[in-house]
Amino acid sequence: MRTFTIVAMAFLFVFVGVQRFAQADEVKANIEDKKGKANANAEKAKGEAKALTEEAKGNNVSATMERAKGQTKAAGARIEGEAKELKAKTE
Length: 91
Hints:
The protein has 91 residues and is mainly alpha-helical. It contains 2 helices and no strands. The protein has one domain (25-90). The protein starts with a helix and ends with a helix.
């Protein structure tokens, strides 16, 4: 009976420890996802601001290019955030 109790307690400690690490990885993955989305939104906003400045100057072609650059950088930031999220989930 004593051996059974010791084995059961050891199993519970291992199970709870593994569960805590899994939850920590999930939180870290969530944070990385949020950071990627925030960076993507920031890059898109920068591109839009530059585009509006160029439109105010009368440079419609430059404005379109600035918008495209902002969207491209936003996509890159979003992808980078998703990659970090996946990495955090697999750790």
